[in-house]
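Holo model, phosphoric acid mono(formamide)ester. Inputs:
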Amino acid sequence: MRHFTTVNDIGPLDSAVREALEVKANRFAYQHLGHNKTLLMIFFNSSLRTRLSTQKAAMNLGMNVIVLDVNQGAWKLETERGVIMDGDKAEHLLEAIPVMASYCDIIGVRSFAGLKDKAEDYEERVISQFIKYSGRPVFSMEAATRHPLQSFADLITIEEYKTKPRPKVVMTWAPHPRALPQAVPNSFAEWMNATDYDFVITHPEGYELAPEFVGNARVEYDQRKALEGADFVYAKNWSAYADPNYGKVLSTDRAWTVDTEKMALTDNAFFMHCLPVRRNMIVTDDVIESPRSIVIPEAANREISAQVVLKRILEDL
Ligand code: CP
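Output:
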């Protein structure tokens, strides 16, 4: 593997999951791969899970790790070419990328959608520039439109917990006070559509995701109907994608919060969320603390998804 930004980069999902379970059972077996190799993790946005799990995965593989928080202690970076740099941004990405690349072998990038310019976000301008100008393998630690390390961990978790070959997986929008990107739901939909699961998306009208991510998923505007018989409930908030409301919060209706009564409509479903989660907005305390909540093992699998991706990149260096 050279770069990892979408589900298409991982190849057949059954092989990827099999490899993930092997890595999970023996996570220190590949330390030779990372010997004297350096991972540079670049964060344009905050993180808890991605930062820790990816660093742990790299350490499991014997790598050295450098972490850069671009907005804390580094020069502010200009990302647009042609801009007269007379503002607060002291360095251009076009110099910064090759300089950073000279200190490492693999680069991970986290750069969220700005939610102001849909074209800019959906062109993935930041991570695309890293791929183009670094000369290094680059993987996404959540970009503007996708969060593939999260989706891969979600898939591993579903495979571990499913009790039937073709589970019903329902991704439900849930309320949040702030405008969030579509990266996690886009990516989850992309990965679920690559399986043969019964995959349903439910959200209020106005929250339709980009058609290329919805794919063949069934979209159901009635949340209760969507949840009937579900084996997995994947809750997530996202802001509007459709124009003219791109990046806006259209609703904070807590009738969409996942609570015990909603979970009772399911087939004793497992509850999932990528975290961080706003309790009693997205999900009630009762549900997230219930024995059917698998948010902690889901987060733990972030180490495994990152390790499979890094392992595959190291094998092809
Ligand atoms: N799920 C996830 O990516 O968490 P962080 O934002 O804390 O990295």
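The two ends are 9 Å apart (CA to CA). The chain has twelve helices and eleven strands.
Archived with the compound record.
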